[in-house]
Amino acid sequence: MTESPTLASADPRTSGVIRVADAGIRFQRNRRSRRSFKDLFSSRARRGRPGEFWALRNINFDVVQGEAIGVVGRNGQGKSTLLKLVAEVILPDEGSVKVSEGVAPLIEITGGFVDDLTVRENVYLTAGLHGMKRAEIDAQFDEIIEFAEIGQFLDTPYKHLSSGMRVRIAFAVISRLEEPILLVDEVLAVGDKGFREKCYRRIEELLAGGRTLFFVSHNERDLRRFCTRGLYLDKGALVLDAPINEVIDRYNADYPSA
Amino acid sequence: MTAAVPERRAWSPFARYRHTLWLLTSRDLKVRYSTSFLGYFWSILDPLVMAGIYWFVFTQVFNRGVGHEPYIVFLLTGLLPWMWFTGAVSDTTRAFLKESKLIRSTKIPRTIWVFRLVLSKGIEFIASIPVVAVFAIFAGATLHWEVVYSLLAILMQTVLIAGIGLIVAPLVVFFRDLERAVKLTLRFAFYASPIIYSLQDLPAGIETLGYFNPLSGIFSLYRAAFFPDAIVWSAVGVSAAMSVALLAIGMVVFRRTERSVLKGI
Q1: Choosing among B7, B14, B26, B27, which should be mutated to test the A contact, i.e. which has the most A CBs within 10 A?
Q2: Most CB within 10 Å of its CB: which of A102, A204, B49, B69?
Q3: ipTM for the predicted complex
């Protein structure tokens, strides 16, 4: 990097675009357990009550722009929770998660789509909610539709699409967001083989364009294909933060049959 | 390495907020109009039917001793803002639950889930104002300059509903029973608020108590458009203070509960 040192702290290429410091988040073990109005007014530190567990705790890492991070771990070890923290759709109970650039979250991608609106209206709605301006959506619209291979259903209500088409159009919209950070949960397990490969090529394209990737998957091949660095989560702690091959080897050593 | 990430034009947070608020509000309107044939008329039909019933009961059946003449205009000037209030407050009980999929997947400032309901019901209220105009013309009510107080009333009501919404919306996530409690309270509040009667019709002892219903002052401001002597300034003062206080409490409750709400949905 050739930037002057005074600029370095503000430059996402040298300082983190994602900075997670001592982050921790707690969940209720039993969803139905009682809450009292008192909880609202006691201080945050004193609110640790029995029945709660730390899904993640003492998590520390920085991600610089252009890195491709793969998150590894067994089910229920906090992978998706970490992804949601980075997407800022949940907030940490302690520590901090700072994301300094815009995020395109491929998490529950169909979440913002409305059954009663047409495909066209849904594209404008979802892209707009993610911060795209109308003119930008206009410019991208044809590409989005072409990617989703859904041209003849533009004015069909979303509820009448097949589940495959729903995922395709959702992926097409979110992957066009032009945000510098891309978060991918295992959503891509859906859709047929051909489309999945197309999605992967799109992700590679974005990576080549300098995007930062944060990828949660159980699939070793995919992880090695996209990621350079791995985060290994186990029992709510960040066990290893190393190059992806090292992380996968360690994971396989810990859980041989997994 | 030359990163080719396109430089994004920055939204100011306020512009982004407004943009998102507008998108969600227009989404709701679009859904309503694409799924129902009568669309707009449903939002005025409800208060019209209620006004019709009360007008019949109190002017044809009973010998009415409350309110002002023409009674139908008196009723509507209370009923329409009441529809805004009750519609928005009862919708805030489902503000998070109904949108849980979107909240879990997209980062949107959380207060939007409450404010968009205040806004969309407020738009419906504004859209229903012509109904009052029509009845005022046919019933021969005169419009006074005090109609400008309606703007103050709209402002106060917005603050009041936003405050209540910020309190109710997150608490319902933890206490589902609150949803039914709110519905019941609203039904009680309908008769406890000066809608079918005016504040001055209350017996002396209860009248002062009525001031502490924040809706009393607000409704008296709306009614001043046709009935200038309906205005009770002390009630307006109490309303304003309570609305601001509720908004302040709402902000605190909302901020305190935000992280738990996100986990709970």
Answers
A1: B27
A2: A102
A3: 0.80
